[in-house]
Every structure is written in structure tokens, then in C-alpha cells.
Specification:
The protein is mostly helical. It has 4 helices and 2 strands; from the N terminus they run αβαβαα. It starts with 12 loop residues before the first helix and ends with a helix. The mean pLDDT is 92.
Length: 97
């Protein structure tokens, strides 16, 4: 599964400038990222905003394995349901560069 290829990294201004869209899991992440990088702040959204009401996605860190499975299912569902909006935002932000 593609999740096994993921590795966390510190977000840099270069990453923010080069990307078309930044999806975060929690409102605190969104606020912090937009404050730290005000110029490309318009690229930052909660993943939940792609489909349905804005809400945080729980962090399963330190929880039982079922919590990780639940988080994975929730993220997968939001990505699938929000795909059209994700693509539209990426295209819009790509044109703004």
C-alpha cells in the first residue's frame, strides 16, 4: 500500500511554493501553517473540507492498532469523496503560479 512509502518531513517555504495544495488533518495544523507561510496560505485546507463539514481527523499515535485502521479508512474515504474538489483546487492554484 502507498501509505508505507510516507515519511514525515518538516515543511519548508520551498515545499509550500512548489506545491499546488496542502491538506492537513487538524485546524491547529491549518492555522499554524498559514501563519508560518502567509504568502502561500491560500493553498492550505483541512482534508475534511474537501468533502463535508470541517472537522479534525483524530491522530491515532499511541492508540491501539484499530485506531490506526479507523484513521486510515477515514482518510481514504475523504480522499475518494473529495477528489473532484482536490483536483479543482490543485488546478486553480497551479494556474496562479
Amino acid at each position: 500500500m502507498y501509505w508505507s512509502l510516507f515519511r514525515s518531513r518538516a515543511l519548508t517555504l520551498e515545499m509550500m511554493v512548489e506545491t499546488d495544495l496542502v491538506l492537513v488533518m487538524a485546524q491547529s495544523h491549518k492555522t499554524c501553517t498559514r501563519e508560518r507561510f502567509p504568502e502561500p496560505a491560500h493553498k492550505v485546507y483541512l482534508l475534511s473540507e474537501m468533502f463535508g463539514p470541517s472537522r479534525d481527523i483524530g491522530d491515532p499515535m499511541g492508540q491501539p492498532i484499530d485506531s490506526y485502521r479507523q484513521a486510515l479508512c477515514e482518510i481514504d474515504d475523504l480522499l475518494k469523496r473529495g477528489l473532484d474538489r482536490i483536483i479543482a483546487l490543485m488546478n486553480r492554484n497551479n494556474q496562479d503560479r
